[in-house]
Write a structure and sequence with these properties.
Blueprint (H helix, E strand, L loop, with lengths): L3 E8 L8 H13 L18 H9 L6 E10 L5 E12 L5 E9 L8 H15 L4 E7 L3 H9 L3 E8 L12 E8 L1
Parallel strand pairs: 4-5
Antiparallel strand pairs: 1-2, 2-3, 3-4, 5-7, 6-7
């Protein structure tokens, strides 16, 4: 029996509430764990997101934010196993022309397999479908590898720096976000 693996991305539905614990572990693992190249554990303390936050995001999906999950399906045709391996949320800005990528996370065990690129490209497609013209993301200025990865996806720095949203969680003081944008 040959086991195949396929990654796909889709918009969240209410039935996905059953994945809240796994989504919680995926997001916090990507941001706050030892593993993976996207961790911020040396920069930021505390959880990135709570299970209650995730429940709220799923319940309000599409109003106004849109949440997408990446699934890995593996197994033989008789017994397919699905597991969540990443997330991204599309958050509209006030002008209605731009949307920000948020809650972007890939499980550390799944990083460097193309999951992140697939999630971001899926988000770009959904953004276009929703009528947005520009994708935006905020990245901590000290995250050089991550900034370079976003540049490869077509993002450009705007020159804007903004304070970290939760300064009390910063382990390294005075670190700011850099704003990056990409025309869709």
């Amino acid at each position: 029996m040959v086991s195949e693996s396929t990654i796909y991305v889709r918009e969240v539905v209410l039935d996905d509430l059953k994945y809240n614990k796994v989504v919680h572990e995926t997001i916090n693992g990507a941001y706050r764990s030892e593993g993976g190249w996207t961790t911020e554990k040396d920069l930021v303390s505390g959880e990135r997101v709570t299970i209650e936050d995730i429940e709220e995001f799923v319940h309000s999906n599409g109003k106004p934010n849109t949440l997408l999950y990446a699934f890995d399906t593996s197994g033989a045709s008789e017994e397919v196993i699905e597991k969540i391996v990443g997330t991204v949320q599309i958050q509209p800005t006030e002008d209605g022309q731009e949307a920000e990528l948020g809650l972007f996370a890939v499980a550390p065990s799944q990083q460097s397999r193309g999951v992140g690129g697939l999630l971001v490209r899926s988000a770009f497609g959904k953004m276009k479908e929703l009528g947005y013209k520009v994708a935006m993301i905020h990245v901590l200025e000290t995250r050089i590898g991550l900034l370079n990865w976003y540049r490869k996806l077509g993002f450009e720095e705007t020159g804007e720096r903004i304070p970290f949203v939760w300064p009390e969680k910063l382990k390294v003081k005075d670190v700011c976000f850099i704003t990056l944008k990409k025309q869709l």
